[in-house]
Design goal:
about 300 residues; mainly alpha; two-stranded antiparallel sheet; 8 helices; about 50% helix; about 5% strand
């Protein structure tokens, strides 16, 4: 009897101790786990906050730094902005006149062929006449000699200088860039080109401009080697459009927008065609789906339990 009672008490004591220890271990584990999750959340919040503060400090520092002396051009409402708007071909033709009479003295369009003007700014006969105004070295002939011939539609617009060294020597060390892709090569290209052409002004106090340079706030550093070339009536448009400075800058910018993106209008046409085709296909698919699933969706399913 005593032995049986002792075994029972011992068993109860052991169960009580082990149960208490187990419950304490579980409590400690859950507490540690909760603390671990809370610590992770805290560290995550601290990291996000620190990153946000660092980004804010960097943005503020960049906004007030004096290392980048440049004015950001405003965004103008160009005719070719908009999903369904194309380039103004009359403006592009006037832009060609501006390039030919003003810009071609220093800048090249070496990646534009005369044939690309056909149907864009000129007719085929007009483009041929423009090409024949230049002389192109060709050959060799039957005697092995090279000769000069009038230009063809397949020829590219010749540069004003034979090489970069000659261009720098003629422009006080500055190299006039090729204008073929100038709009794509500059941030906010069309607005930058227009603002640069119309933004010449006197240098403010504290800004030093070297000899042969002009001040333009839209050019990095402010000092630009190109003098102001856009003035009122610097060219006479053949269609009678008033040649104001802003009109001239607008037309040459539109023309350079085309040279940088010759597929601009075609891309818009393809987008419109794609919208029409995919809209039609979507409507037909929705109609077919409704017809195909109408019977199944309108079918009522009933469940009748079997009688025992």
């Amino acid at each position: 009897m005593a032995a049986s009672l002792g075994r029972i008490c011992k068993s109860g004591l052991l169960k009580s101790n082990y149960g208490t220890l187990f419950s304490q271990q579980v409590h400690n584990f859950s507490t540690a786990n909760q603390w671990s999750r809370g610590r992770k959340v805290l560290l995550t919040c601290l990291g996000v906050t620190a990153g946000g503060i660092s980004a804010l400090i960097y943005a503020l520092d960049r906004s007030v730094t004096a290392s980048e002396l440049i004015a950001h051009p405003p965004n103008y409402k160009w005719d070719f902005y908009g999903f369904f708007n194309s380039l103004d071909h009359k403006s592009m033709r006037r832009g060609w006149e501006v390039y030919k009479n003003v810009c071609s003295a220093c800048h090249s369009l070496q990646y534009v062929a005369y044939r690309e003007l056909v149907g864009v700014t000129h007719t085929e006969d007009e483009a041929k006449a423009l090409a024949e105004e230049i002389q192109v070295q060709d050959g060799p002939d039957d005697t092995g000699a090279y000769f000069m011939r009038p230009g063809k539609l397949s020829d590219y617009i010749p540069p004003p200088y034979p090489n970069e060294e000659a261009a720098r020597a003629a422009n006080n060390g500055a190299y006039p860039p090729d204008l073929t892709f100038i709009v794509n090569a500059r941030h906010n290209g069309e607005n930058y080109v227009f603002s640069l052409l119309t933004g010449y002004c006197d240098a403010p106090a504290g800004i030093q401009v070297g000899e042969g340079q002009s001040f333009n706030p839209y050019f990095p550093g402010g000092a630009i080697g190109m003098a102001q070339v856009i003035f009122d009536e610097v060219v006479d448009f053949e269609d009678g459009t008033p040649a104001t400075a802003s009109q001239i800058a607008k037309d040459i910018t539109t023309f350079l927008m085309w040279t940088s993106n010759p597929e601009f209008d075609e891309r818009k046409r393809l987008a419109i065609k794609a919208i029409i085709i995919f809209s039609t296909l979507t409507a037909l698919t929705v109609y077919w789906k409704k017809q195909k699933w109408a019977t199944i969706k309108n079918t009522k399913l009933l469940y009748t339990p079997r009688k025992q």
